[in-house]
Amino acid sequence: MRISYNWLKNFIDINKTPEELSLILTDIGLEVESLEVEQRIPGGLAGLVVGEVITCEQHPNADKLKITTVQVAGTELLPIVCGAPNVRVGLKVIVAQVGTTCYPTSGEPFKITKSKIRGEVSEGMLCGEDEIGLGNSHAGIVELNSDVVVGSLVKDYFDMQDDYCFEIGLTPNRADAASHLGVARDLAAYLRIPLKPIDNSNFTEAFEKGTSVNVIAIDDAPRYSGLNISGITVGESPAWLKEKLQAIGVRSINNIVDVTNYILHDLGQPLHAFDAGKISGNQVLVRKAKAGEKFVTLDSIERELSAEDLVIADAEKPMCIAGVFGGAYSGVTEETQDIFLESAYFNPVTVRKTSKRHALKTDSSFRFERGTNPDITVDALKKAALLIVEIAGGQISSAIIDQYPTTILPFEFPIRYGNIQRVIGKAIPEDTIKEIILGLGIAIKNETTAGFDVLVPPYKVDVTREIDIVEEVLRIYGYNNIELKSQIKASLNTSEKPDKELVLNQVADFLIANGFREILSNSLTKDLFLENPNTAVKLLNPLSSDLDVMRQNLLFSSLISIGYNQKRKSADLKIFEYGRSYQLIEGKYVEKQLFSIALAGRKNVEQWNNPAVDVNFYDIKAVVDGIIKRLNVEGIRVEDYEGTYFDFGLSYKKGEKVLVSFGSVAKDNLKKADVSGAVFFAQIDWDLLLKVIKKNKITYKEVSKFPSVRRDLALLLSDSVTFDQLRLIANRTERKLLKDVQIFDVYKGDKLPEGKKSYALSFILQDEEKTLTDKQIDGIIQKLIINFEKEVGASVR
């Protein structure tokens, strides 16, 4: 949500800079994600000054050029060559001096330099509208009023004040702050300054009866207000209104629609203007749609309505999906002369369901589905009507229609000072507590020494309990104003073993030390990335089609990050993530803690003595093995990977459960995430890993004083035999003296029989109590050969 700094001044008198205000907004719960300067025209006329033409003579070498001297400051005169037909002595002009950058209406910015034009020195430029972005005219230079002071800034002459826009990350519970009024209310409470009231003192309604209104679906439209305005002229909005909307990123459409958009962002109240001449029977019905009823919306798409949708209809047909989207037929056009202006409060649940049902997200539905202010509909209607008459002409031609059969009452509940101070942890003065609460628009009654009752207006939909008031007081008082004690006492408790955070930090430190970076991804993803659609956890109210399900793995989170970086010329990546997966299995929601590792691009920077090499399968395997070894996980069983993640890979199992799977990501998965090149990925079942290492026992064994011995064997094997099988056979054959088994060479080729391969294995033997003899070593190797031949049909090469 974008909020304009200058716009806020309509509601409060601010003596804080935009930078100071951004810090305050963040402190009170309206986090400012960015602060941007907004200029009415590019450059904001910076560096341009007012000058006066002192002399003006014909250029000796050009018929259409004049040589002028221009006074811009003191007695100094600047020689400037000018080709404008209207340049003359005594004219007050806009001067761009040497070094000034001009931003033309079209084309690239350019910098003024000292130059010679047809042999005559020119130290500046006398500016036309199009040369500095003021307009499109190229007929001549701009002529300023004769009383303007020479040397003054042109931006002051045109009142070219910079605006600043706050990009606020509005949380869903803060519907009350979805407008400039709402943000200003919070600031007024924090700064202890008054909030300016809405001024509709000039409003005068007519006594004639306007469009007839009949609210049939009362529960879905508890309050419905409207009035008629006649004799308007639909056209372009004035500059001030277009600039206001442009500053917050809203495109100008016409003066009527722009006013409704202005009020929406000003007061937080959505409005809708109907072409009164197209309302059949001059009657507005607020009703439920008929099942299957067809309706063409403003985007010219015909939609089939549900019986649960609320519509604004005339005597014959729907004109608008209430609170969500207008209709193509009844909208305001250039031919519109009379309008019916609607200001209503719709049931948030009804609007939310309709918006989701038709996949329509608008500024209006954003506010209605979170809860607008039912008490402001008439004030917003009056303010909008006054603006429309001011900029589009016409007159208010009816009395205000306000159907509000059942008043929506404020939330009423008791507050106790002791509870506020106990939860906050500080004795905030009682007068300060009341001042904050009143500043937020919350009324107080039934005061006692212990506390009072509050009447919370309906627009503060998230404040319904005493603890909510505590939160309101605390955020406005300031979290930073709650001092920490010099000593913090806490009871000791036995932490869970293993220490989850410690284990996570050990693995993270290991990866970071090896050049990895941690990523944090959204748990929401799109259904294209589902591993199993049958167990998907789908959102009932997704923000978009790209965020409509909970992720089932971390693979696509990593691929999205890799694709994003690849498109920004950063393709060499080593990343890891710690996050959860979500599935619905047999009617139960299951969350799983996972840890992922991904490699892409090159594994080293290209240098003169070290050519760049792409990452490969063995790089991801080395990382996984490093983690397994770092956490002292033993008894791993290795199997070929079976699944949809990888084109090829391995799974490390503990018992019958997969502890980690890794390999080369399948091309279909790379294509889904728009990733180019090979990606190697590993996913660890973190919950299982913690259970495994929980059984680890720390033991210490004295380093052996006796040397280890290495023996190698080259075995001819069937293609189906795995190294893990050989390792298990070797460990069963010699449990005491065999310390390690490694494979250091693999060969497959035409020199071997078809279906065969050669493994070269190394065996490390060591006795903790004495030096091994050749006889012992040869006996162990012979037993290994016999068992390899017996169990997997191996032969020694």
Feature tags:
6 domains, Phenylalanyl-tRNA Synthetase, Chain B, domain 3, 797 residues, alpha+beta, OB fold (Dihydrolipoamide Acetyltransferase, E2P), five-stranded antiparallel sheet, Phenylalanyl-tRNA Synthetase, Chain B, domain 1, 25% helix, seven-stranded mixed sheet, 19 helices, 40 strands
How is this fold's topology laid out?
Elements: E1 2-4, H1 5-8, H2 18-27, E2 32-38, E3 48-58, E4 66-73, E5 76-82, E6 92-97, E7 101-102, E8 110-111, E9 115-117, E10 120-122, E11 124-126, H3 154-157, E12 163-168, H4 180-191, E13 212-215, E14 223-230, H5 239-247, H6 255-267, E15 271-275, E16 283-288, E17 294-296, E18 302-304, E19 310-313, E20 318-321, E21 325-326, E22 339-345, H7 348-357, H8 363-368, H9 377-392, E23 395-396, E24 401-403, E25 411-416, H10 417-424, H11 430-439, E26 443-445, E27 451-456, H12 466-477, H13 500-513, E28 517-518, E29 524-525, E30 549-550, H14 555-566, E31 573-585, E32 588-600, H15 617-630, E33 637-640, E34 646-654, E35 657-665, H16 667-672, E36 679-685, H17 686-694, E37 709-718, H18 723-733, E38 738-747, E39 756-765, H19 774-792, E40 795-796
Parallel strand pairs: 13-16, 28-31
Antiparallel strand pairs: 1-12, 2-12, 3-4, 3-6, 4-5, 6-11, 7-8, 9-10, 14-22, 14-23, 14-24, 15-22, 16-19, 17-18, 19-20, 20-21, 25-27, 26-27, 29-30, 31-32, 32-36, 33-34, 34-35, 35-36, 37-39, 37-40, 38-39
